[in-house]
Amino acid sequence: MASHRTLRAGLIGLGAMGRHHARVLREIDGVDLVAVADPAGDPHSVAGELEVLRDVQGLVAAGIDMAVVAVPTVYHEAIALTLAESGVHALIEKPIASTGEAGQRIVDAFASAGLVGAVGHIERFNPALQELRSRLAAGDLGAIYQIVTRRQGPFPSRIADVGVVKDLATHDIDLTAWVAQSSYASISAQTAHRSGREFEDMVLATGRLDNGVIVNHTVNWLSPMKERVTVVTGERGAFVVDTGSADLTFYANGTIATAWDSIAAFRGVSEGDVIRYALHKREPLRVEHEAFRDAVLGIRHDVVTLEEGLQTLRVAEAMVESARTGQSITLA
């Protein structure tokens, strides 16, 4: 990093996620956290020597190159547009915005300003999912048949402005499209409201990707057990990822191709070898920040783009719409 200048970074939003962003911004090379802002103050005492500014204008006035936006989703648009107008690159926590229209305005503003914009879909930087994606791309599974995700756990009292679809299911939508390297073609969903709040707190969704892979997502924040699982089943077996522990396990289809012509047409499935891969596990948030820093510096570009974040949000909106209407939604 020595050959590049140090980037001046700002952070807006000092809550549950903001405190982790502050720590990582201080840890990585080539970045200097010079300003923090949150109108609600600094509940986790992350500011350190820095003054806690009131708003995004204060952040911009500190002379920053890049900013991390970790405020509630409803405020993403206004803050992102101010950063774009001010010529500041931004990493926006997921989802990109609370509506597709707002997301589109953010995409357009950063594109016309020629700035790097990224969305914090952190699962892409999970070592087990990165390993899974490269193995799928290398053909380790042969043809991919289905992808199933389960993301369940206790209720996060801090999330009040969106439901479980936009808050949690967006992780699964993004990681599924990314590991399969294919967009969603259609989605159908059922939701439930069990906690007495305005937004849905459970969703079951099923869909199909453009490449023909069928997908299923179970997402809620009403479960006493925490589960973060992705299962990809294909011709040669199944990969199981626990993204909580960053473990990747392969269950091989043990059926050996037979030389007996009359039964060779049907290749069944049987239990084969099981392999748990040893992975180099780095903190996903740190890997995500390094990718954003390098994108700002023009070194590489493997961030989750604003366009991808918007695409994910549109699938989430289609889930909510499907649950409301009882119809399967086709995505353009």
TrEMBL record:
Gene3D superfamilies associated with the record: Dihydrodipicolinate Reductase, domain 2, NAD(P)-binding Rossmann-like Domain
Taxonomy of the source species: Bacteria, Bacillati, Actinomycetota, Actinomycetes, Micrococcales
Domain Gfo/Idh/MocA-like oxidoreductase N-terminal residues, every copy: 8-121
GO terms of molecular function: nucleotide binding
Keywords: NAD
Protein name per UniProt: Predicted dehydrogenase
Boundaries of every GFO/IDH/MocA-like oxidoreductase domain copy: 130-239
NAD in keyword set: yes
InterPro entries: Gfo/Idh/MocA-like_OxRdtase_N, Gfo/Idh/MocA_Oxidoreductases, GFO_IDH_MocA-like_dom, NAD(P)-bd_dom_sf
Domain of life: Bacteria
Species annotation: Sanguibacter keddieii (strain ATCC 51767 / DSM 10542 / NCFB 3025 / ST-74)
Annotated TM spans: none
